[in-house]
Each structure stands twice: as structure tokens, then as C-alpha cells.
Design a protein that fits this description.
The complex is a heterodimer. Chain A is mainly alpha-helical. In chain A, about 85% of the residues lie in helices and about 0% in strands. Chain A has 3 helices and no strands. In chain A, helix 1 crosses helix 2. Chain A is elongated, with a radius of gyration of 23 Å. In chain A, about 25% of the residues are buried. The model of chain A has no long low-confidence stretch (mean pLDDT about 85). Chain B is mainly alpha-helical. Helix content of chain B is about 75%, strand content about 0%. Chain B has 6 helices and no strands. In chain B, helix 1 packs across helix 2. Chain B is globular and about 50 Å long. Classes of the chains: A mainly alpha, B mainly alpha. Chains A and B meet through helix 1, helix 2 and helix 3 of A and helix 1, helix 2, helix 4 and helix 5 of B. Chain A: InterPro entries: MZT1.
């Protein structure tokens, strides 16, 4: 049982550290949610260079925004087509 | 190989987290397939130097001072308190994680809100 206690203590300490780092990221206005921050922390702990990771995060954010814009544009184009065909149906 | 597999899994999670918001499962998988290779290449072959912990500390002190200069005492105190609390949980990776946060910081003196 002491081993289990030790593990849960370590987990609690790690959680606390992530909480503090998340608060620091909010103060520095990093636009990171807890999940993304946790993933990035584990990547850094695996030896990934933090500056390379930051540039990847910026790039992925940009790509994500573009993908969302494309999705919105496709959805609005679909609605427009639907509206036109409905309008044409009414005319007939 | 194990390292690469682990890194690949983490990269997939990162892509899903950053590009997958408001997207369905199929679109997330498409995003992961599209970006996985380039992200792995960027992370493995880069030209960045190792992190200088003193430089990181200087930058954080600079932010704290700047917050005080522009009259955002509460923000400066909050940053100072969090950095002190983090000292208990110091690991060898702490300067690297703080460096990462500093890289992503976006005009905190003007835009950061304590209410967040």
C-alpha cells in the first residue's frame, strides 16, 4: 500500500504543478487550454525543444483556423445552394 | 522506436487538440494525417539552441516589472505568487516549460485578464 500512496502523492503533486503552469499561461495570455498544456508538458519532458514546439503550436493554430474557415464556408455555400433550389422549387 | 511511437502519439493528440475543435472524428483524422509528418520533422530537425534558464528568469522578471510599471500590480503579484508556488515543484524541465510559455505569450501587459 505504501507504493500506491506514494504514486497518488506524486500524481497529486504533478496535477498541482500543471495547475500552476496553467495559471501562469493565463497570466501570460498564451491561449492554451489545460489539455493542450498537459500534452505540451509531456512532450517537453520527453525531450522536445520548447521553441520548436511553440512554433509548431503556432503553425497548427493557423492551420486549424483555416480548416474551420473552410468548413464554415462550405456549410454556408451548401445552405445557399439549398436556399436557391428551394426558391426555384417555389417558383415552379 | 519506442520514443518515436510515443512522440507520434503525442503529436496526434496535439493536432486533435489544436485543429480538432468543432470538427467531427473523420475531419480530425484527416487533419492528423495531413500534419503529422511535417510536425514530426519540425520537432526532430530544428536549429534552436538549448534553453538558458537565466534568460528565462530574466524575461519573467521583466514581465513582472512591466506589469508594475503600467499599473497592473494585481497581475504582477499573481505572476510572482505563481512563480514562487512553482519553486516547490521544480524539475529539470521547468525552465524549458516556462520558455515554451514565454514563446506563446501574446501581449500579456495589454490583453491578460485576471478574471480568466
Amino acid at each position: 500500500m505504501p507504493a500506491a500512496d506514494d504514486r497518488s502523492e506524486k500524481q497529486a503533486a504533478a496535477q498541482q504543478a500543471v495547475d500552476i503552469l496553467h495559471e501562469i499561461s493565463t497570466i501570460l495570455n498564451c491561449h492554451l487550454d489545460r489539455r493542450t498544456l498537459s500534452i505540451c508538458i509531456s512532450m517537453i519532458e520527453n525531450g522536445v525543444n520548447p521553441e520548436a514546439l511553440a512554433s509548431v503550436v503556432k503553425e497548427l493554430r493557423r492551420e486549424g483556423q483555416e480548416a474551420q474557415l473552410e468548413t464554415v464556408a462550405a456549410a454556408s455555400a451548401g445552405n445557399a445552394t439549398l436556399g436557391t433550389s428551394t426558391g426555384a422549387g417555389r417558383k415552379r | 522506436m519506442a520514443y518515436l511511437a510515443q512522440l507520434g502519439a503525442q503529436v496526434d493528440e496535439l493536432i486533435a487538440s489544436l485543429c480538432g475543435a468543432n470538427l467531427d472524428e473523420e475531419s480530425v483524422q484527416k487533419q492528423q494525417a495531413a500534419h503529422r509528418e511535417s510536425v514530426l520533422r519540425s520537432l526532430r530537425h530544428h536549429t534552436f539552441l538549448r534553453v538558458n534558464q537565466f534568460d528565462v528568469q530574466d524575461q519573467l522578471n521583466g514581465f513582472e516589472e512591466r506589469f508594475r510599471v503600467i499599473g497592473r500590480e494585481a497581475l504582477a503579484n499573481a505572476l510572482n505568487a505563481r512563480l514562487e508556488a512553482l519553486e516547490v515543484h521544480q524539475t529539470k524541465w521547468t525552465p524549458d516549460i516556462l520558455r515554451f510559455l514565454l514563446e506563446l505569450s501574446d501581449q500579456p501587459a495589454q490583453k491578460a485578464k485576471l478574471s480568466d
